[in-house]
Amino acid sequence: MKTINIRATLLCAFLLLAIPMATTTVAGATDLYDGPLTPIGFKIVNGKSTGNPITIKTEDLVKSPGYTHTESSPGTYTTPEAVIETDDREQITDTTKTPYRWLGRVGFTMEDGRKNHCTGFLVSSDTVVTAGHCVSGKVSDIIFTPGVNGDTTPFPTAKATQIWYDNKVFLPNPQQDWGVIKLDTPIGDKVGWFGMAIPNDEDLIGRQATVIGYPTTYPGKPEATLWKDRNTITGITPIEITHIIDTTRGQSGGPILSDTNTVYGIHKGGSAHANVGNRMTAELFNLIVNVSKM
């Protein structure tokens, strides 16, 4: 099994926060479970949060839509389809192919005026999922650009009209680190989007998974380029997935994917021993689907 080198000190989160890894346990463990989701949403006007939460009952947001998985969509765009110890990430040189065009850079402005980014991925025509710490707090001017490839942007940029995240993201060691962005343009109609599923324990522990995302500038990783790696899921809890897939800062919010490119989780950060993401629980799946239907 591989162990992280010094690269792991560059967290995948856009903030330089030390996010501890999830304990390697099986689902059913309760020591890390911090209760049900506590979602909160805000409308975005002129790039800034209105400050007044959207009034929707939590029970309505997490109500089952009547199904446990969603299908991916290729969109109408057509094209030929064809770090832990050593950095095994592979650069995606054609970001217009599926599933790579279903991802993009989530850009935003921090409170002090600095520009930063995370990774996000489409799950419907106008809905992007990312990490909660990427959209919570006093960030502004949130945008999403799919398929970015260095200086090339083959698809349009969309602006956020709503953001959703969990209030628990403000805890010192947040486990509920998910975020959802509603866009002003249904760009997914053209580029497509990922399908999601609620994985069983057997779908996760010991299995291989892939994380794709946009790391910040890193040796050998030019700005705004897309990279992926595939490796082992080493542990699970009721709400988290621990893995040894190579990632660095900027890849927070990227999808944790099965071999069929189905979203099983949301990558959020790492520690000195492993990387970690939010598991696609039934509650989180329901919330994302219901927000996507708004």
Question: Can you describe what's shown?
Answer:
This protein is mainly β and 294 residues long. Helix content is 8%, strand content 33%. The chain contains four helices and 16 strands. The strands form two sheets. The protein has a six-stranded antiparallel β-barrel with strand order 4-5-6-9-8-7. Strands 11-12-13-16-15-14 form a six-stranded antiparallel beta barrel. Strand 14 and strand 15 (262-270) form a beta hairpin. It starts with 38 loop residues before the first strand and ends with a helix. Residues 1-31 have low confidence and may be disordered.
Total count of strands: 16
Low-confidence stretches at least 5 residues in length (pLDDT < 50)?
1-31
Oligomer: single chain
**Shape category:** globular
Bin the strand percentage: 25-35%
The total of helices stands at 4
Order of SSEs: EEHEEEEEEEHEHEEEEEEH
Estimated structural class: mainly beta
Rg over CA atoms, rounded to whole Å, is: 17 Å
Identify the strand order in the major beta sheet: 4-5-6-9-8-7
Mean pLDDT: 85
The largest sheet, given as strand count, sense and whether it forms a barrel, is:
6 strands, antiparallel, barrel
Give the end-to-end Cα distance, rounded to a whole number of Å.
44 Å
Helicity, in percent? under 10%
